[in-house]
Amino acid sequence: MRPLPRPRAAARSGAPTAPPEAHAVAHASDQGARIAVIVIAAAWHLGVALPAVSRAGQGMAAPAVVAAGWLVTALVGVGAGVRLLRGGLPPAGPLAAVLLVVDAAVVTGAGERFLFSTANWVWGGLAWFFLLAIWQRPARWLLVMLTAHGAIALAAVVFYGATAPADLSRTAMYVYGTSTLPVAVFVGAAAITAQARERAATAAATLAVAAEQEAAEHARTERQARLALVSGTAEEVLAELAAGAADPADPAVRRRAVLAAARLRRLIAESDDVPDALLHELRAAADLAERNGLPIDLVSVGTPPELPVEIRRGLADPLTAALAAAEGWARLTVVAGPDEVVVSLVTPDHDGPDEPAAGGYGPVEHLHERDGEIRWTQTRWRRT
């Protein structure tokens, strides 16, 4: 017998690039927070800061510096926002440094007259851009930037001599009021994302345990069904031989015994974990026939798709029965494609029991013909 070519094992890929379920849920939660921060930063920058700068105009100490700072911050926000929306993270260090430079420049450019005005837009709006720049970094990054932001504001207050108790209180209120909400959003988003990841991981682990239990129960049921099939295949022949009701020398009894052995071999092969289960089961039946002295040529063209056990039985059982009754020689051919599998057996014709001219095993077609010289048996499965 020419050995059937063994299928090559699938190439092993690296670690899966797709995130696990828990990471996917956490990513969805984090994506919502990213969008919220981007919208708030854009709304504040366009709806509050830009009109205030336009109204103040030339009254500021250095309006060009304030306008340039607004534009630079807008570009930082666009770049960081695009990266965040695409699932990435912006370069936190460089962007944080740029924003702090803008912070100092705008405070200086606004001048003493607009120190506590909305024209000095970094008071209330810049902290949201801090969040965009350092998203998903440790919370200490934000605390350091807000501390630097407060230090710049305090330095400006001292520089302009606004050190009266009322001015210092106003400065503290500004720093506190413009920092608490960004901190709450930043810390809250991180906490919600971590909680979502944890809950999703717990749910995935619970589902995995349930799936394993279901798979174990399914495997047990299949083993019981296979045991019943195996027992039914050989029980009748063995019982007759044991009772003396069957003669081992009778060719018909020998054919029945060979058929029982072939079916036993094929049913046992069903439980093997191999890449091409159908070819493995046919090879088992062909090996047994060859051991019984039947020269057999086994040819395979194409790779069969993954098929349920019932389909494989429908394709292999008629060929197993024909092989058990074959004499002289046999040629077994398997032609497979993604949507069709055809298994054919050709043997010399001989006296003996015939098979039905046509029939079926559920979705599997079964044909059998003889012309006095050869017997031809075929099973065919098509994807519907």
Summarize the model shown.
The protein has helices spanning 21-56, 63-85, 92-110, 122-133, 139-159, 165-243, 251-270, 277-291, 309-325, and strands spanning 296-301, 330-336, 340-348, 358-361, 364-370, 374-382. The protein is an alpha+beta fold and 384 residues long.
Describe the model.
The structure is a single chain. The protein is an alpha+beta fold and 384 residues long. The chain is 63% helix and 11% strand. The protein has helices at residues 21-56, 63-85, 92-110, 122-133, 139-159, 165-243, 251-270, 277-291, 309-325; strands spanning 296-301, 330-336, 340-348, 358-361, 364-370, 374-382. It has a 6-stranded mixed beta sheet with strand order 1-2-3-6-5-4, with helices on one face. β4 and β5 form a beta hairpin. It is rod-shaped. Residues 1-19 have low confidence and may be disordered.
Which secondary structure elements does this structure contain, and how are they paired or packed?
Blueprint: H1 21-56, H2 63-85, H3 92-110, H4 122-133, H5 139-159, H6 165-243, H7 251-270, H8 277-291, E1 296-301, H9 309-325, E2 330-336, E3 340-348, E4 358-361, E5 364-370, E6 374-382
Parallel strand pairs: 1-2
Antiparallel strand pairs: 2-3, 3-6, 4-5, 5-6
Helix pairs in contact: 1-2, 1-4, 1-6, 2-3, 2-4, 3-4, 3-5, 4-5, 4-6, 5-6, 6-7, 7-8, 7-9, 8-9
